[in-house]
Amino acid sequence: MDTATAPRRLCRLDEMPDGEAMALDVALPYGEESMILLRQGDHVKAWLNICPHAGRRLDWAPGKFLISRGLLVCAAHGASFRTEDGECIGGPCRGESLRAVPIRVEHGEVLLDV
Predict the structure, then answer these.
(1) Is 19 exposed, middle or buried (0-12, 13-18, 19+ CB in 10 A)?
(2) Pairing relationship of beta strands 21-28 and 71-73 according to DSSP bridges
(3) I need a surface site. Which of 36, 71, 75, 90 has the fewest CB within 10 A?
(4) What is the reported pTM?
(5) For position 39, what pLDDT does the model report?
C-alpha cells in the first residue's frame, strides 16, 4: 500500500472516554488542523474543530467540549450541532454542518482515512 494514501493512526479507542469528545491536532493533506473526535461506544465521529458561523474552535477550553442531550455546543456563540451528523440545529449557523473528517476504527485503533 502506498504510504501517502495509507490510513494513519490517531489514537487507540480505549484512550478516548466513551460519550465524550476530544481535540487532536492532525496533519491533513492541506495543512495542520484541530479535529474533534467523539466516541460513542465502538464508533468514533470526527469533524474539523471549526464552527461554520465564525470560524472559531468549538471547545470551551483546549480539548474540552460541551455535549448535552446529543448536541455538541460551540463555546463561542452557542451553535448546537447534532452528534450523529454534525448538522447545526440551533444558533447562528442553523442548517450548516461541521466538516466531517473520514476516519475508521480497526482492531481498537482510530485511523485517519484520507
Answers:
(1) exposed
(2) unpaired
(3) 90
(4) 0.89
(5) 96
